[in-house]
Amino acid sequence: MSQSTFTILLGGALSLTDRLRDAVRESRFIAADGGMRHAAALGVVPELWVGDFDSTPPDLDGAFPDVPRQPYPAAKAATDGEIAVAEAIERGAKRLILAGALGGERSDHALQHLLYAVELAEEGFDILLTSGSEEAVPLLPGSLEVDLPPGSLFSVPGFSELRGLFIENARYPLADFHLPFGSSRTISNVAEGAVRFSLASGRAIVFARPYDLSGV
């Protein structure tokens, strides 16, 4: 088990794909409120369960009696997910996998997870957001490689203006590209294997759908 890799179980949808299982296999786990429902599906026992428990279904409330709970009032200044991440960092996290961070019933939570992931990446943490079928990785100035099956779809929406963007090993490569904020130019590309990115300035997210080969 990796002592510095933590999977945060969040409330969004989670598909139990091979990539998901491989990603979390050696990690430690912390559940955020109703995200605990994913623990049974994954066959894991988190070391902590945090939240205001307003989204914990009754049938889950009595499960995992041996997992320590850290309750918070519903009127608080942070999401359950952010509280769970803070606990993981306090316990030595260097890599954070936010499982159940994408999609779900609350688009505001999904967007906040993405924004928070960029902030965490800027602080030096290695971040992966996943729903099992879809993944997201922050892209900041520097280089990044994302290992994807050939033919899978990916997009790079910018959270700001992007300058000096390079995309290699993709159907639509880019070199030293300037992406205005709000442009859709980098939406819907197709991987030819591991895709390499580099960026001179700006903030973005790489969205990937490893099992979606519709671009072939």
Automatic annotation (TrEMBL):
Domain Thiamin pyrophosphokinase thiamin-binding: 142-205
A Pfam family of this chain: TPK_catalytic
Enzyme class, UniProt record, top EC level: transferase
TM spans (from-to): none
Catalytic activity, EC: 2.7.6.2
SMART domains on file: TPK_B1_binding
One GO MF term attached to the UniProt entry: thiamine diphosphokinase activity
Highest taxon, organism lineage: Bacteria
Keywords of the record: ATP-binding, Kinase, Nucleotide-binding, Transferase
Name used for this protein in its record: Thiamine diphosphokinase
Source species of the chain: Rhizobium mesosinicum
Lineage: Bacteria, Pseudomonadati, Pseudomonadota, Alphaproteobacteria, Hyphomicrobiales
